[in-house]
Structures are given as structure tokens and as C-alpha cells.
Specification:
191 residues; Hypothetical upf0131 protein ytfp; 5 helices; globular; 19% helix; five-stranded antiparallel sheet
Length: 191
């Protein structure tokens, strides 16, 4: 089956971590939609201002991403990782490949009750989208790099800046880049 990714699943490393194998990964564009970061984060340790990727219909807009061919057996794992059907819905879309062919595939779109205005992605999350630099145009890549990311108060120095969420066995800490470079914490970076 064909699957169009526009968010964190653009990263092959994320797909691998989720256990979703694919036969192919290539560039594709979804015309008539725009990339939005209005899907509310639902993990309890993340602040309410964090948003995940979503698509919304918009005349003249284009979303670039990765067109995967995955085995049907991996659809259940993809659904689970996208929290289908509660958080994201599957939507049939038609994308254009870099060769100009149109391909019918599935994409995920956030449920209306899971979206909000004024949200921003974390730097960590945005890096997953930037991992598609081998597939997206230079213009689109620059557009992604200019996206405003979430800023929070560092637990170490109390400065407001971009933050990492580092999960240890005991807690999740919010750490700014300066403190993280000066004193790297063991744990898993989340966000």
C-alpha cells in the first residue's frame, strides 16, 4: 500500500524506530493542502503549546513529503503510532511524484477535536521533518527551517529558549540548548 508522510514519519529513522518497514521511499507533493502544526500534543509531560504536523486544505498550497510503499501488515502499526482513529484519521489523497505521475495513497489528518491554534513544534520534532531533505525541494526545506519552534523555561537556568524534553527514569526535564551542551543529561530526548 502507498502512504504519504509529511510529519515525523518523513524520517527513515522514525519509521525504523516504529518498526514500520517499507519497500520504497520517494519524493511526493500533496497539492491543495498546507502543512500546519495545529495537532495538540497529548503526552502528559509536554506543555500545552506544542503542536504536531497536520494537513489542511488550502487552494494553491503544496505539502512536500515522503511517499512510502509499505506492506499491508504494517498498517496496524502505523495506525497505532498515529493514534488512529482517535487522534488522526486516515484520508485517501492523490500525490504527485517528482516524475510528474499521480499516485493514490493514504495520509493521516488530525481529528478536528484534537487541533488548536497558536501551537509550535519542538525543535526535536521539526528535525524529523528536516530529515526529508533528500526528498523535498530547497525552497520547501528553507520554509521548514524558518518555522517558529516551541520555547519554554529551562529547568536548569530558567531562561526561556528552545527546549529539549529529556525523559529519565524519574521524570521529564525541560532543558535549554545551553544547559544541555554544558551538562548533557542521560535519558531519552522526547518531543
Amino acid at each position: 500500500m502507498k502512504y504519504f508522510a509529511y510529519g515525523s514519519n518523513c524520517s527513515p529513522a522514525v519509521m525504523h524506530r516504529k518498526g514500520i518497514a517499507y519497500r520504497s521511499r520517494r519524493a511526493a507533493r500533496l497539492v491543495g493542502f498546507e502543512l500546519q502544526f495545529n495537532k495538540r500534543a497529548s503526552r502528559g509531560y509536554l506543555p500545552s503549546g506544542i503542536g504536531y504536523a497536520n494537513i489542511g486544505e488550502q487552494v494553491g498550497a503544496v505539502v512536500e513529503g515522503a511517499l512510502y510503499e509499505i506492506a499491508e501488515v504494517h498498517l496496524a502499526e502505523l495506525d497505532r503510532s498515529e493514534r488512529f482513529p482517535d487522534h488522526y484519521r486516515r484520508r485517501d489523497v492523490v500525490v504527485e511524484t517528482s516524475c510528474g505521475h499521480t499516485v493514490s495513497c493514504v495520509a493521516y489528518q488530525a481529528a478536528q477535536d484534537k487541533v488548536a491554534r497558536g501551537l509550535c513544534p519542538t525543535r526535536t520534532y521539526l528535525e524529523h521533518l528536516l530529515a526529508a531533505e533528500d526528498l523535498v525541494t530547497a525552497f520547501y526545506l528553507e520554509k521548514l527551517k524558518r518555522i517558529k519552534v516551541f520555547e519554554g523555561k529551562c529547568d536548569g537556568c530558567s531562561l526561556v529558549d528552545e527546549v529539549f524534553f529529556i525523559q529519565t527514569e524519574q521524570q521529564v526535564r525541560q532543558v535549554g540548548p545551553r544547559c544541555h551542551r554544558a551538562n548533557p543529561m542521560p535519558g531519552v530526548i522526547r518531543g
